Amino acid sequence: MKREGENMKISVVGSINMDMTVTAEKIPKKGETITGRELYYIPGGKGANQAVAMARLGANVEMFGCVGDDGNGALLIENLKAQGVKTEHIKTVEHTPTGVAFITVGERDNTIVIVAGANNRVDRAYIGHIEHELKKSDMVLLQHEIPLESIEYVIDLCYRNQIPVILNPAPARSLKQNLIEKVTYLTPNEHEARILFGAVDRDELLRRYPEKLIITLGSKGVCTCRKSGEILTIPARPGNVIDTTGAGDTLNGAFCVKIAEGANIEEALQFANAAAGLSTEKLGAQEGMPVREEVTNALRV
């Protein structure tokens, strides 16, 4: 870390979406039509969500990504600014729609379909344009909702410049082994871990990447392996679950904030798990994200 103890700059390179969220009594099965309750238009995208999660926790965060030249794009940039996220280098792409996610919330769970839109324009050319700004970062957070070649380029750039990288590999896709070695932390859920590594025993897999691989377990919490070889599991915080959308993004953002502040991995995961639990008690990814005081109070209980 370059400036441990100071207000470190965290950069997020990733997706910016408008979430169209419908609530229903249940999630429909294949071929089934059901009646929804309400429809909401909520700012989202894994990258933007994680940036907002960190800003709400008091971090110094800049978002890098692309939106379309439409109403959604303008609204999403204004929302990020309002949440305290720096947006100066977000690109507005002409003749391209802003990314959209279609989310169904029911049965205390959700399903999501994403149309990438302008997120596909977070390409090598765009990364080249913002490269000098990324080099000013003390930590970089990435996800899989932008082109893979851009993710690879940013990881290589940060590795060469000794900038820690957290990669949240969602949605899951194959990764080159050398990229896994270059990232500082890799944070899949159980499903994503199986796609990345195959049918490997979870504890064996964690021990392969001590204090690098962090697997989120949904309602069961989150786990990693200490450098001593001990498996560390932080149980989920009990709560009144309303919407799990964005819980993983909250966890990643909160973990990133605490690591940037110099916390050890157990302290960071406890903080992140509490933040993720709080985020499920409200509807919407960003709307449910807690502020610092809420997380601190939850950890005291």
Q: What is the strand and helix layout of this fold?
A:
Blueprint (H helix, E strand, L loop, with lengths): L8 E5 L3 E8 L11 E9 L1 H11 L3 E5 L1 E3 L2 H12 L8 E3 L5 E8 L2 E7 L8 H11 L4 E5 L4 H13 L4 E4 L8 H6 L2 E2 L3 H8 L4 H7 L6 E2 L5 E4 L5 E4 L12 H14 L4 H15 L12 H9 L1
Parallel strand pairs: 1-4, 1-9, 2-7, 5-6, 9-10, 10-11
Antiparallel strand pairs: 2-3, 7-8, 12-13, 13-14
InterPro entries: Carboh/pur_kinase_PfkB_CS (IPR002173), PfkB_dom (IPR011611), Ribo/fructo_kinase (IPR002139), Ribokinase (IPR011877), Ribokinase-like (IPR029056)
Subunit structure: Homodimer.
Keywords: ATP-binding, Carbohydrate metabolism, Cytoplasm, Kinase, Magnesium, Metal-binding, Nucleotide-binding, Potassium, Transferase
Structure write-up:
This protein has a five-stranded parallel sheet with strand order 4-1-9-10-11, with helices on both faces. Strands 3-2-7-8 form a four-stranded mixed sheet. A three-stranded antiparallel sheet has the order 12-13-14. It has ten helices and 14 strands. The model is unreliable at 1-5 (pLDDT under 50). The chain is an alpha/beta fold and 301 residues long. It has helices at 46-56, 71-82, 124-134, 148-160, 177-182, 190-197, 202-208, 247-260, 265-279, 292-300, and strands at 9-13, 17-24, 36-44, 60-64, 66-68, 91-93, 99-106, 109-115, 139-143, 165-168, 185-186, 215-216, 222-225, 231-234. The chain is 35% helix and 23% strand. It has a single domain (9-15, 45-87, 119-300), classed as UDP-N-acetylmuramoyl-L-alanine:D-glutamate ligase, CATH 3.40.1190.20. It starts with 8 loop residues before the first strand and ends with a helix. Catalyzes the phosphorylation of ribose at O-5 in a reaction requiring ATP and magnesium. The resulting D-ribose-5-phosphate can then be used either for sythesis of nucleotides, histidine, and tryptophan, or as a component of the pentose phosphate pathway. It catalyses: D-ribose + ATP = D-ribose 5-phosphate + ADP + H(+). Its EC number is 2.7.1.15. InterPro entries: Carboh/pur_kinase_PfkB_CS, PfkB_dom, Ribo/fructo_kinase, Ribokinase, Ribokinase-like.
